[in-house]
């Protein structure tokens, strides 16, 4: 679906990360030929990272040491739409927490997280709201439950202001 979207919108860059070799090969085999030049599928094993999140609470755990995709491009444009459907929960607690910390978001950009019906994903979203100033825009039922968040214009300033006031 995303490769077809890339073909329709050649100015949009789409990057898909897959850590599991089986799923990577399966996905690669399903892609259309020729593959649009603006669609990029990467096999990126998980690696240990350290989050620089100032927030520590019982709700979202002390989840500063995480596993995340071994994908660190030299230059990375600001992301306008981030679909978070991994890593799987079996890889670590709060496995999806690093997504908007590791992938810089554009002002007005959206984050969609899958499996929002789970307690852990709800805790992750609460952490993003507090840490990053994201706004919860909608909850959508679509096979599973999706939470849709947006980075407002003053997100970083609002978070810093809240910390100064406290």
Keywords:
166 residues; alpha/beta; Translation Initiation Factor IF3; two-stranded parallel sheet; 28% helix; 30% strand; globular
Strand content: 25-35%
Helical content, roughly?
A: 25-40%
Structural class: alpha/beta
CATH class type of the domain at 76-165: Alpha Beta
What does this entry look like structurally?
The protein is an alpha/beta fold. It has a domain at 76-165: Translation Initiation Factor IF3 (2-Layer Sandwich), CATH 3.30.110. Helix content is 28%, strand content 30%. It is built from 5 helices and 8 strands, in the order H-E-H-E-E-E-E-H-E-H-E-E-H. The strands form 3 sheets. Strands 5-6-8-7 form a 4-stranded mixed sheet. This is S-adenosyl-L-methionine-dependent methyltransferase.
SSE blueprint and pairings:
Elements lengths: L1 H7 L5 E5 L2 H10 L8 E5 L2 E5 L14 E5 L9 E6 L14 H4 L2 E9 L5 H14 L2 E8 L1 E7 L4 H11 L1
């Amino acid at each position: 679906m995303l490769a077809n979207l890339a073909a329709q919108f050649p100015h949009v860059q789409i990057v898909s990360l897959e850590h599991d070799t089986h799923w990577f090969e399966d996905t690669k085999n399903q892609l259309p030929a020729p593959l649009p030049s603006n669609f990029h599928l990467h096999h990126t094993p998980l690696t240990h990272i350290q989050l620089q999140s100032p927030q520590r609470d019982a709700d979202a755990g002390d989840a500063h040491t995480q596993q995340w995709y071994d994908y660190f491009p030299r230059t990375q444009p600001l992301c306008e739409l981030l679909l978070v459907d991994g890593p799987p929960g079996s890889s670590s607690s709060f496995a999806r927490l690093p997504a908007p910390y590791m992938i810089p978001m554009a002002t007005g950009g959206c984050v969609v997280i899958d499996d929002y019906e789970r307690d852990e994903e709800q805790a992750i979203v609460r952490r993003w709201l507090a840490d990053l100033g994201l706004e919860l825009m909608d909850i959508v039922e679509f096979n599973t439950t999706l939470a849709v968040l947006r980075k407002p214009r003053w997100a970083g300033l609002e978070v810093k202001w809240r910390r100064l006031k406290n």
